[in-house]
Amino acid sequence: MQRHVFCKISSLAVAGTFLPFTACSGPDPSLQLRLSVPAMMATLSDSTTIMALGNAYMEQVPEENSPGTLIDRLMMNSDGTSIPETSDSLVLQEKMQQKVRADFENGATLVIQGWVLSQTEARQCALYSLTQSNN
Asked: Three-state SS for 82?
């Protein structure tokens, strides 16, 4: 057997051993990070405030206190279609801004600690809070 063939087979064997376990590890960390920063809130406030708002949101809506649930809800368009997880950061940011605008237009807002937030922003704050508490 030639060396390059052996290396390829060995690489495939190693990948085949560990690949099934990557699907069980929970939400894609990259996607979680890309969704967890509410654009408008990040420009208006510091991370401590964003975390406090996220924690307060999870107290108000306890069924949304896991990264997987928050990501699922954030990745769902108002028409019931899903935003592709493979979307790059700029596309995700634009989609989240569209969702925030739609939330305000449709009255999907909450008052949390004196802040008027769209549902999308509140979910992003919660996801940010969970992301930071896992570090």
From this structure: strand
For residues 135 and 132, give the distance between their C-alpha atoms in angstroms, rounded to a whole number.
Answer: 5
CB 32 within 8 A of CB 101: no
DSSP 131: H
Domain-wise residue ranges, the chain: 27-133
* Structure confidence by residue, pLDDT tens digits, 28-72: 567 777 777 677 666 667 889 999 999 999 999 999 999 999 999
Rounded CA separation 42/59 (Å) = 21
DSSP summary character for residue 66: S
Query: What pLDDT sits at residue 86?
Result: 87
